[in-house]
Write a structure and sequence with these properties.
Blueprint: E1 2-11, E2 14-24, E3 28-33, H1 40-47, E4 55-60, E5 75-78, H2 90-100, H3 105-115, H4 130-142, E6 148-152, H5 160-175, E7 179-183, H6 187-193, E8 196-201, E9 204-210, H7 211-217, E10 222-226, H8 232-244, E11 248-251, E12 257-260, H9 264-273, E13 280-284, H10 288-296
Parallel strand pairs: 3-7, 3-8, 5-6, 6-7
Antiparallel strand pairs: 1-2, 1-4, 8-9, 10-12, 10-13, 11-12
Helix pairs in contact: 2-3, 3-4, 7-10
């Protein structure tokens, strides 16, 4: 589990993250959303010990990243797919990372197969496309078979087949009880991948809730009503009747009406009572993108002058309360997590603590491909010999390889 309490990061007079508290729990895909410049990348860097917080703290399994024993085998991350030596072959890049963490070479070939790069394993990464680079970065994150995974824009540059593969991979990893934390700007993909959302804006927490609750709290369901296009007077007649009955009616560009505040049966009765024929009467639920735009419209730093004309700053329908800029105690989706290490289960091998799984259950070695706890097949499990402990973050691989002559040239 990832836990941040009062996390703050300042760069000079600029505050990138301000008093941020949240928990990322195992067994679910947690989406990390926010506009550009909201502090998502800074937060992920602090989670991984790459940046030190100005105040507050963030822990993984109750420990700061730098105190985790052999951290690369406990936490896998993809923050920048381009952070690879261009003259090195894909297999050698992963092999260097494996040797630094005491991971056997056979695991390198396994993850290359998982991400689909086995046929280009000996090609230099400088010739890789953006999508291939993403796959190589995901392979590096999976290398240590970690219980905690962080991905920053993992589907960037992937084709539709690759996007579907990443979606299924993240769901499978979460189903095994792992903690999966994913940052993305693709709302359509987050809507079908994430189970839980953490939304920040200008470095502050805006929402921390289930994805369905988030959509419901930041949008209003409405009915779509359409009358015969050849009889515009009927639409005006129905609009007046619906407004008089307490509904809120907004015309849409295609000639239909968007009605809120009235249930569908009531709309049907009103249309029948006013002798108006209906060509369409259908319920509509807002998308994640619509709810996200409502939530973050006040936290966007860079906005086009034509946004208002494009309808991106429309007011919320009557009866829907706009979200507060900074959630406080008592607001929907807000909670105060307990202090770090209070009831947290450390990772296997933590000093002075028994080995425990993501839910606190004792861990038992699992051979490659053997079912994990709960009977779910675990294609990533790998029995490996004990590795030397390393309390520091994973260093960058050296610029030369001794494993293959082609990379020494």
């Amino acid at each position: 589990m990832i836990e941040a309490v009062g996390l703050t990061k300042r760069y000079g007079d600029k505050t990138a993250v301000s008093n941020l508290s949240f928990q990322v729990r195992p067994g679910a895909v947690t989406g990390f959303l926010g506009p550009n410049g909201s502090g998502k990348s800074t937060t992920m860097r602090m989670i991984l010990g790459l940046d030190n917080p100005t105040s507050g703290q963030v822990t993984i399994g109750g420990y700061p990243y730098r105190r985790l024993p052999n951290a690369p085998r406990q936490v896998g991350a993809l923050l920048d797919a381009k952070a690879v030596h261009g003259g090195r072959a894909a297999r050698n890049h992963l092999l260097c990372l494996a040797q630094l963490s005491g991971i056997p070479a056979r695991r390198v070939d396994e993850v290359l197969g998982v991400v689909g790069l086995q046929d280009v394993a000996r090609k230099r990464s400088r010739g890789f496309s953006l999508g291939m680079g993403q796959r190589l970065g995901i392979a590096a994150a999976l290398l240590g078979d970690p219980q905690v995974l962080l991905f920053d824009e993992p589907v960037n540059g992937l084709d539709p087949e690759g996007i579907l593969w990443v979606r299924n991979l993240m769901k499978a990893l979460a189903a095994e009880g792992r903690t999966v934390f994913v940052s993305s700007h693709l709302m359509s993909e987050m809507a079908v991948t994430a189970d839980h959302l953490i939304v920040i804006g200008r470095g502050q927490l805006l929402a921390d809730m289930n994805i369905k609750e988030f959509i419901s709290a930041n949008s209003a369901d409405f009915a779509r009503v359409r009358t015969p296009a050849t009889e515009p007077q009927l639409r005006e007649k129905l609009s007046s009747a619906l407004t008089g009955a307490g509904g809120h009616v907004m015309p849409e560009q295609d000639g239909a009406l968007r009605v809120t505040g009235l249930p569908l049966p009531r709309i049907s009765d009103i249309a029948h009572g006013t002798d108006v024929r209906l060509w369409e009467l259908s319920p509509h639920q807002a998308s994640l993108e619509e709810a996200y735009m409502r939530m973050t419209q006040g936290a966007v730093d860079y906005r086009s002058t034509i946004d208002e004309k494009a309808g991106l700053q429309q007011p919320l329908p009557p009866g829907v309360q706009p979200p507060m800029p900074v959630p406080g105690q008592g607001q929907t989706g807000w909670y105060a997590p307990p202090p770090p290490q209070q009831g947290a289960q450390p990772f296997p091998g933590a000093p002075g603590q028994p080995a425990a799984g993501p839910y606190g259950t004792p861990l038992t070695p699992a051979p490659g491909g053997a079912p994990a706890a709960g009977g779910t097949p675990n294609p990533y499990a790998q029995a490996t010999p004990a590795a030397p402990q390393s309390a520091a973050p994973q260093p960058s691989a050296p610029a030369s390889d001794l494993t293959e002559p082609e990379d020494a040239r």
